[in-house]
Amino acid sequence: MWNLNNKTVVISGATNGIGKAAAIELSKENPKILFTYRNQSLADELLTEIKDVSPNTRVQPVYCDFSDQNSIKKCANEINDLCTSIDVLINNAGVVNTSYHETADGIENTFAVNHLGYFLFTNLLLQKLKGDGEARIVNVSSAAHSFVKKMQWEDINFKHNFGQGLRPYGQSKLANLLFTRRLAIKLSTDNISVNAIHPGGVNTSLGSQNKAWYSKPLRLILRPFFRSPLKGAESIIYLATKQDDGVTGEYFVDSKIHKSSTYSKNLEEAQKLWELSEKLVGQTFNI
Ligand SMILES: NC(=O)c1ccc[n+]([C@@H]2O[C@H](COP(=O)([O-])OP(=O)(O)OC[C@H]3O[C@@H](n4cnc5c(N)ncnc54)[C@H](OP(=O)(O)O)[C@@H]3O)[C@@H](O)[C@H]2O)c1
Questions:
Q1: Most buried residue, 124, 195, 211, 238, by most Cβ within 10 Å?
Q2: Ligand 1 mean position to 97 CA, how many Å?
Q3: Separation of alpha carbons 147 and 177, rounded Å
């Protein structure tokens, strides 16, 4: 086991579902935990739950709305001020939308939160990840990455064919894998591993904000087949705590390396996504 005692763990979207289960479980290792939140009462609930299971763990909530690039920058600045180094970054905050809507930055919400959120947040925290020897980045992706064969470069926002939102969600999770592979190569000499996971079908509040008539019945029908948030968090916990075996740029399911789509390993496409992402966040990252 990689001992997390006194190490710093940053986790996004920890106020619900998989991220919450991961934060509570990891807190038992006694690291310093910084988690992002949007809703103050959910953040307070998590603080109480962590204090109950691990009274000595230092926990710091930091506000972030991942659909707003200014909010991501502000949050990253705060975290950079609060930490001398970061040992584990878990990019987990995510959303499923059944209808099209754009963020204030003019980007479709699913792509903005699920991909650009991970991309910008990680790059802004990179100096602290490089700070203290070994570090790990875990990107929560999904088997849904195979809902699409490739990135829809000609209309990355799916403005003209959003449908019920499944393909835009799939594309955002494919983007998580392309980002994981590209970043892993960029950081290959920095002792920072970058891996992605699929948590399984998990009983969480994912998609609960959607107003489509079928949203709620679909979640109720699927619920008995879905695993618990803690079970869904297992691969995250595994990657955050396992002995360093040098594995990077991989996709894990049930704590084991798993095959992802052929396209998700295409490094030219991964580089193309990197350049588009830089353009969309208006910043270049020379790693
Ligand atoms: N559940 C599954 O079956 C499943 C399967 C494959 C992959 N995943 C992935 O697992 C990750 C976690 O999802 P989950 O199932 O645990 O869903 P969840 O229960 O809805 O939790 C999602 C978390 O992300 C946060 N979040 C959503 N939009 C945000 C935004 N704009 N800004 C900041 N935070 C935001 C939520 O904050 P609030 O608490 O404020 O809503 C919440 O803490 C996602 O990346 C998802 O794609 C889930």
A1: 195
A2: 11
A3: 13
- Report which of 52, 70, 60, 47 is spatially closest to residue 10, judged by C-alpha positions: 60
Taking the CA of residue 68 as reference, the ligand 1 atom at the shortest distance is 31
Q: Which atom of ligand 1 is nearest to the CA of 113?
A: 31
Whether 214 sits among the annotated catalytic residues: the reply is no
Q: In angstroms, rounded to a whole number, what is the distance separating the alpha carbons of residues 17 and 43?
A: 13
Atom 26, ligand 1: residue with shortest CA distance: 93
Confidence check: pLDDT of 222 > 80: no
In order of their start, the domains of the chain are 8-281 (3.40.50.720)
User: Is the distance from the beta carbon of residue 61 to the nearest atom of ligand 1 less than 6 Å?
Assistant: no
What count of Cα atoms within 13 Å lies in the side-chain half-sphere of residue 63? 8
Pocket test for ligand 1, best of 204, 227, 228, 236 (most atoms within 8 A of CB): 204
Whether residue 264 has pLDDT greater than 90: yes
Percent helix, percent strand, percent coil in the chain, to nearest 5: 45, 15, 40
pLDDT of residue 72: 98
Q: What is the mean pLDDT of residues 131-160?
A: 96
Confidence (pLDDT) at 203: 93
Other C-beta atoms within 10 Å of 253: how many? 17
The mean per-residue pLDDT over the stretch 106-110 comes to 98
Measured CA to CA, the distance from residue 84 to residue 80 in angstroms comes to 7
Specify the higher pLDDT residue, 139 or 215: 139
Q: Which of 100, 169, 238, 263 is catalytic?
A: 169
Q: What is the pLDDT of residue 149?
A: 97
Q: Which pTM value belongs to this model? A: 0.97
The confidence score (pLDDT) of residue 221 equals 72
Distance (Å) from CA 139 to ligand 1 centroid:
12
